[in-house]
Amino acid sequence: VRLVESGGGSVQPGGSLRLSCVASGSIFSVNTMGWYRRAPGKQREMVAVIQDGGTTHYAASVEGRFTISRDDTRTTYQLEMNNLKPEDTAVYYCHAEAYGIEHYWGEGTLVTVST
């Protein structure tokens, strides 16, 4: 499974960005897709995930501001980020999981929130 992210960039606090992840390869084996991030000096953390049935989960810090979605082919996943805060600054990674057995990662896209 290959994951390619796009959509990162710089934005002022309160602004919005949309990240996209395109999945290719053996995507039939994937049951969960999501976004993780690693802020400077911090460990990687889960931001949002969407399971095969459509159930979504969000980190408490982004609940109500971020929305994860996918297209009907389940090959493109997006993370809509609104009301961005400086603490959202991080490298964001697209992640795919095959029933906890295999994990796949994109190369990451940088999001910077500053004045």
Q: What best-fitting shape do the alpha-carbon axes yield?
A: globular
| Category by helix and strand content | mainly beta
- Give the terminus-to-terminus CA distance: 37 Å
**Fraction in beta strands:** over 45%
How many helix segments? 0
List low-pLDDT spans. Answer: none
Mean pLDDT: 95
H/E element sequence: EEEEEEEEEEE
Instruction: Indicate the radius of gyration in whole angstroms.
Output: 13 Å
Overall helicity: under 10%
Number of strands: 11
Largest sheet: 7 strands, mixed
Describe the 3D structure.
The chain is globular. It has 115 residues and is mainly beta. It has strands spanning 2-6, 9-11, 17-24, 32-38, 45-51, 56-58, 66-70, 76-81, 90-98, 102-105, 109-113.
Keywords:
7-stranded mixed β-sheet; 11 strands; 115 residues; 4-stranded antiparallel β-sheet; mainly beta
